[in-house]
Amino acid sequence: MKPEFEKIELTEDTSFKLRVFDIHSDCYSVDWHIHPEYEIVYIKNGRGNLQIDKYNSDYEDGVLLFLGPNTPHMPFGNTDFKDRLEVVIQFGEDFIKDKIMLFPEFSCIPDLMERSRRGIIFHPSVKEELTECFEGLRTASHAERLIGFFGILHTLSKSTAFEAVKEEDIIASYKRRDAERINKAFEYVNTAYHKEISTAEIAKIVGLTTNSFCRLFKKTTHKTFTQFINEFRIRKAAAFFDKGGCTVSEVMYKCGYNDPSYFTKQFRRNKGVSPSEYLKNQVKAI
């Protein structure tokens, strides 16, 4: 995995970026990341987890969500079914200002953009209504995709069946430099979670004093850096257990823990059961 401050590049013949993932091309995971573009994600089916800023929840049968710029999040996809499908649409602020706003018929779109900054998850009925539109994008021409995208935006802008992840703009006051610093921290944890990581070390990497970094990280993620590392490591531990083939001790060391008691405590805090109980449940499920 190569985590990064995700840069969304468009080709000369498109106004937005469309990515489609299925059994033949699963989503390339970058773990925790931030990017300055808007993002609409449609997941056809299966169960998965949503981690958006400090929001953490599971979905049971696919999901449809819309995130505003610079929203910290994890990948959302799953691999439950052979007919799985994930459609991701990403576009910049200029797409709205320079293109959409030229048409008075789209006067409702700015309100949708504003809502997306809070992170919005649409009701399953909205996902069902737009299923044909999203699935049709995979084989459509560039012109047909643009028309289809306009239709999706229009439907989402009219919908009131959604849940806001937060009550206010997730990152209203973030400066790009701050977002890049937080993403550097994400990047480092994504690749070095298996070894010891100190707050002083990560503060130096992002170019801040330890106190300044701690304040920025808490302001951005609403959790301490230590809490974030533990949550990330336990998520990785659960993924190792889900994959199979590892003992509790092996997973503990793979995820950067050296103390079995502390590992068990953190695992139970985040998953509700001990590592051995979680592993036993996975074996039973198989």
UniProtKB/TrEMBL annotation:
Coiled coil: none
Signal peptide: none
Keyword Cell membrane carried by entry: no
InterPro entries associated with the record: AraC-bd, Homeodomain-like_sf, HTH_AraC, RmlC-like_jellyroll, RmlC_Cupin_sf, Tscrpt_reg_AraC-type_HTH
GO molecular function, one term: sequence-specific DNA binding
Domain HTH araC/xylS-type residue range list: 183-281
Key words, A-Z: DNA-binding, Transcription, Transcription regulation
Source domain of life: Bacteria
Keyword Signal among record annotations: no
PROSITE patterns (alphabetical): HTH_ARAC_FAMILY_2
Protein known as: Helix-turn-helix domain-containing protein
Organism for this UniProt entry: Leptobacterium flavescens
